[in-house]
UniProtKB/TrEMBL annotation:
Localization (cell): Endomembrane system
Transmembrane segments: 32-53, 59-81
Stored InterPro entries: DUF202 (IPR003807)
Coiled coil start-end: none
Protein name: DUF202 domain-containing protein
Signal peptide: none
Membrane topology: Multi-pass membrane protein
Keyword Disulfide bond included in the entry's annotation: no
Sorted UniProt keywords: Membrane, Transmembrane, Transmembrane helix
GO cellular component: endomembrane system
Domain DUF202: 23-85
Length: 97
């Protein structure tokens, strides 16, 4: 009986998340995963060429090139992810979140 009436509850409602920022953040994470898959496939293909095929100078060169390309793609993905994450955080703070 002593409980306050729901209509007269004066506590402030919690702020709603900005759904556009949430969607962008989730898309950013999916993009990072795509970069990671691509990097892993490039490096894995390079290692396969180096380890499992008949060693020839061309295959070794191609294999090491693919391993290096995988590393570069992975680093680019992380750099882009962290850059956008920082910009999203600044946008969220500017909007008062």
């Amino acid at each position: 009986m002593n409980e306050p009436d729901a209509k007269h509850d004066l506590r402030p409602e919690p702020p709603l998340p900005d759904l556009a920022l949430v969607r962008t953040d989730l898309a950013n994470e999916r993009t990072l995963l795509a970069y990671g898959r691509t990097a892993l496939m490039l490096a894995g293909t390079g290692v396969s060429l180096i380890k499992f095929l008949k060693p020839s100078p061309e295959m070794l060169l191609l294999g090491w090139f693919l391993v290096a390309a995988g590393l570069v793609v992975g680093v680019i993905g992380v750099i882009r992810f962290t850059g956008l994450k920082r910009r999203l955080k600044r946008s969220h703070e500017m909007l008062g979140g």
